[in-house]
Design brief:
476 residues; mainly beta; four-stranded antiparallel β-sheet; 1 helix; disordered N terminus
Length: 476
């Protein structure tokens, strides 16, 4: 709306019209930037707002400042921003400041977790509402708004044993990149965190963090090399099984202040690389013949101790943990620890706080026949369902509350050996990779579990790990 003013000059009436304030701010989206200074973090995005990049508002001779900035996000419910999450995402007071024409300020956005299936993406609208202090000809402050769009993109990160990776998203692969700072580093284990969205790689050269398709940080801090790593309840636990023989720990947040403290000692020097699981502060690692529980409480006197004294049937291949496994068919209490060996699938009966007295129970199928095939991978979804894949690509499920009974879901029709697996909780799809680099999606299709052998994802690389991480991006 125009404000009309009449001036009398030499007896002549002159009318001046001032148009309403125009919203003319610009957004500069900075994927990977966090409010605590961490960079290359998939879950973070910095947003720089500039009040009229030309340095002027409305007309060339007048500058209008803006204030009372309020931001909102629509299109996703897993995004934190200053208005709904407080000052931690606005460390410089951007929303409470007054910006003169040409001035800038920065605030931050952050993902709270995974919510979209791999192969999809979601546009998210960022709206900034503010007042323009339009004082030209007595115009007064007027409200305005500006909008920007960014994207939430789930990525399946496919990694080989030498630390080379590529991201699969929107039905295509990115170019390859290195997840660590030294080429051809032998990887031993991979995991992700739920705070920054980093991929952690334990290797003979150290512990490396990767994000946004680039190597980001080396957090070895003179306590490597590392055979295993896992993140549980906001804490990262790398394992050194060399002469030091220790489990270390540190909070993942803030990353800049990571200081490695000793969590447990007495780690055997022949533990299996990449075979590790956790429940809270209870960590489980394994040698080919024995599982160890590591805990820095009085249970183990800060040492790793034998878990379930009886040796399992066969050599250990993989471990998993479900907090929802229930009790056995005989009424035995189960700890939640699940083990796959060359001799079959097992659950642990007993108590978490009394590991030396626990024992292994072999899992049976629906006909009460023991599952004795060699179990290669164990994956647990966010509901506590356990998926076990044997050497013949038979897929078993111990449903939440299923105890020591499993269902044969289906058999994946492929060749070679099981290389890696991961579960897409948002899409409810189990992804399995063979040693030829082919990746298959398996899922419940109207009550029948199937594996899609027509739409195979060909990675073109020898797969070591599959991990799912969503990133905030400024464009598709």
């Amino acid at each position: 709306m125009k404000n009309i003013k009449r001036l009398l000059i030499g007896g002549v009436s002159i009318f001046l019209a001032s148009c309403g304030a125009q919203g003319n701010i610009t957004f500069d989206l900075m994927p990977g930037n966090c409010s605590d200074g961490t960079t290359n973090a998939p879950y973070c995005m910095g947003v720089q707002i500039q009040n009229n990049s030309s340095g002027q508002n409305y007309i060339n001779s007048t500058n209008y400042p803006i204030n009372n900035l309020v931001v909102s996000v629509s299109g996703a419910n897993n995004i934190q921003y200053p208005t709904n999450s407080g000052s931690s995402l606005d460390p410089h007071g951007c929303l409470g400041s007054t910006l003169g024409a040409g001035a800038t300020c920065v605030f931050y956005l952050k993902l709270t977790g995974e919510s979209l299936p791999v192969g999809t993406s979601a546009p998210i609208s960022l709206v900034a509402n503010y007042n323009v202090k339009n004082q030209l000809f007595g115009g007064g402050s007027q409200s305005a708004s500006s909008t920007s769009t960014f994207y939430q993109i789930p990525n399946m990160i496919v990694t080989n044993t030498n630390g080379v990776a590529k991201n699969y998203s929107n039905d295509s692969f990115s170019s390859t990149y290195s997840i660590e700072s030294k080429d051809s580093s032998q990887l031993n284990a991979l995991t992700t965190d739920s705070y920054y969205g980093f991929l952690y790689a334990a290797s003979q050269n150290g512990l490396y963090l990767s994000g946004n398709q680039t190597y980001a940080y080396n957090k070895t801090e003179s306590v490597g090399p590392f055979t295993n790593v896992i993140v549980s309840s906001g804490t990262v636990y790398p394992v050194n099984s060399s002469s030091l023989g220790k489990v270390y720990y540190a909070s993942v947040n803030p990353l800049s202040s990571i200081y490695w403290a000793n969590y447990s000692s007495n780690v055997p020097n022949n533990i299996l690389p990449g075979v590790m699981t956790a429940s809270g502060g209870n960590l489980y690692i394994a040698t080919p013949s024995q599982v160890y529980q590591c805990n820095n409480s009085s249970i183990s006197s800060s040492n790793c101790m034998v878990d379930a004294n009886a040796s399992p049937n066969g050599s250990i291949n993989t471990l998993g943990f479900s907090n929802s496994i229930g009790t056995s068919s005989q009424g035995d209490n189960l700890t939640g620890l699940v083990m796959g060996t060359t001799g079959g699938l097992f659950v642990e009966s007993g108590l978490i706080n009394a590991p030396s007295a626990n024992r292994w129970m072999q899992v049976t199928n629906g006909d009460f026949v023991s599952i004795t095939a060699s179990i290669q991978k164990i994956i647990v979804d966010n509901l506590g369902n356990v998926y076990a894949i044997d050497s013949g690509f038979n897929i078993y499920e111990i449903p939440a509350g299923g105890g020591n009974k499993a269902n044969l879901l289906t058999t994946l029709a492929t060749s070679g050996s099981v290389a890696a697996a991961t579960y897409d909780n948002a899409g409810q799809i189990l992804y399995i990779a063979n040693n030829s680099g082919q990746i298959y999606g398996c899922f419940n299709n109207s009550g029948t579990y199937v594996c899609d052998t027509k739409n195979v994802i060909n990675s073109g690389m020898t797969v070591f790990g599959l991990n799912i991480v969503t990133s905030l991006e400024s464009y598709l």
